[in-house]
Write a structure and sequence with these properties.
The longest helix has 11 residues. This protein is mostly beta strands. The chain has a 22-stranded antiparallel β-barrel. The chain has a five-stranded mixed beta sheet with strand order 5-10-11-8-9. A three-stranded antiparallel beta sheet has the order 18-39-38. It is built from five helices and 40 strands. It is a multi-pass membrane protein. This is TonB-dependent receptor.
Length: 730
Amino acid sequence: MLTAVHAGWWQVTHSNPHKRSARPIYFLATFLVSGWGHVAVAQTVSVQTKPIETNAQSGVTALDTIVVTARKTNEDLQTVPESITVVSRENLMAAPFDPGAAIVRNSPNVQWINRAAGQQFFSIRGVSSLGTPVNFSDGTVAFSIDGVPNSLMSASNLLLDVNRVEVMRGPQGTLWGSNALGGAINVVTNQPDGRRDLHMTSEIGSNGYRVGELVLGGNIIPDTLDGRMAVRFGHQDGDIRSVFTDDLGKRDIAAFRGGLRFTGIDNTKITLTGNYLRDEGNAPFYLVRNTARFPISGTLTEPKSVATQGGATLTVEHEFSAFRVTSVSAYQHNEMQSETDNADKLLYDQLGFPAFSARGRLDDKEDIFTQELRLNSRDGDPVRWVVGASAARTDGNRTCVSAQCAPAPYFDTITMDTRLDSTTLGLFGDVSIPFAQRWEFSIGGRLNHDDIELKRRNSRDIADLTGSNSTAQTYPTGRMALAYKWSDDVRTYVSLARGNATRVYPLFGYPVNGVVADPYPAGTGWTYEAGIKASLVDHRLELDASVYHNAIKNGVMTFLDPALGTFGTTYQDYDTSGFELQGRMLLTQGLTVTGGVGYTHSELGANGATTNTVAGNGVPNTPKWTVTTGLQYNRSASALDLPGSLSLGAQYQFTGSRPADIDDSFDLKPYHIVNMRVGWKNDANSLEIYAFGRNLLDQRAETFGSLFLGVETVAVGPGRIAGLGLTKSF
């Protein structure tokens, strides 16, 4: 009897003779060579963010300065010696149900691997899980919201009322905590700062798409209390055909974010924020590739997933004459309930076996408590510094009925319960010192200590399936950089960084004779980087280029054991090397072009794997080429004898082919995404009406893949959505 299991789909150790190669991106190359190439090398930012500042008297225009907090203080992006991409709220709204896809759509060398609800993760420069993460802490990219670290379970957060997203490449453990081996992503939300902001947005489109959002913000008590809140509701019909059920891929979302800020004490701000999300869907567990009428599912019963997330954050800031003190206390509660039928008739037909229902159920819960206390230099001080301490406690629980959670004959008759609890303590510091007029030296480090405990038990109190294990680890991470300022507008840098992930216990699995296996070793890595940042043509052109090499040891990977028919986990060394070229340019007043190109060469090493030989294969889910370009044009509507102004936004993304698994069984197909938006805004800027098209080419991007006995299976992104929207401010 064949059993389809849950952990990472099916992977085998032989190659597929029908493996595809990527087609050259002739369209994009022509576009770059024909006049855009000279500006495709700088920092990618929103194509819909206000692009210019205008001096009304002189008529001179220039790009806005982009301020980031990548080093825990406000800095001009062009002065930070790191490769960073900033993604705006407007670009996030191009994928309101899947902000992870919107982030990578604007970020070269960044991938969003979306296997199923609650099983999504980021990859930066090819540094990621080699398969699927084996628990919700098994990440290589730190994901934070307003500086509060989140787990992989909440990485699919809808990101309501966001100001921007900062994508930081290279190890970021010094300031962003555990599991920042490949980089870090920090979501910066709009804060209750007292500014009056009352607006509503409504969108309706094809495939039953509809979204409504309301934002209320302003001052409540003069000079004392400010408030802000946002709510969003949305629905989208399924767009994946299903032989035996309703269409799959449906989504229903409800989200809230709100906060209060107390400013009644001199030089002190106290901010309390809260958030809630409910996300319900019926995405299929997998799809058989290359079937007639693809994408189509042969699942025998309809899957269901419900994710809920809630939390609160208390931030206290006090300004002293020489430094700033910040305390950030946070609590998060995440839940994921999923029911899937792991059998698909279309798959079993290809294997020549009769299909049978193989439903599995997972209930995951986690409570996360975090605290950070830090001291910073004041904004603009010549020497930038930060020191601090952090603590995090995670209480996780998984209840599972699945072939991956118990051996035969128990897997469909027993409920396994797994507790995974961890405590992480850290001390960190970072400083940048200018010297000899043009030079700046930066150095920083963190010392972390992890305590992790895993306990497994079962509903029938079977002793052989009951057990526990624990581990403790103390480890350093750090980064140093040397920058040289050739002029006020051009600087270069070199950097060296050390990254470290936590040790890993798989959530899937069971004790053997009452013994829980030891954890997999922590992934570690060294990253070498050099870059240049330039602001040219009277600040109308910004360029950002970087080259890098990552040497990773003990990357955790998932594989199928053909003898047992179940998944195992081991570890593998690998290297990645490449570059990013990013840029934005103000071509003329009202017309801004942005773009980015990323290249990554990845290669698995010979050390670590105990199940097969994969040395020389590419890292799963890592394309060689990624490209993003955008255009935003704003002008008066007077040429059409209309009041107000007109806007046109266009965006293009290319992602090349990439290995589906560690065995390089087949490649996920390259894809091209095109988005457009055309709008009219009245003279008072209080009303905007717009039309939009998302994924206009209707390409079903393959977001994950695996192989079972020669049959290719994948997950896919959503198809084309076209519609109308309205934003009204009051």
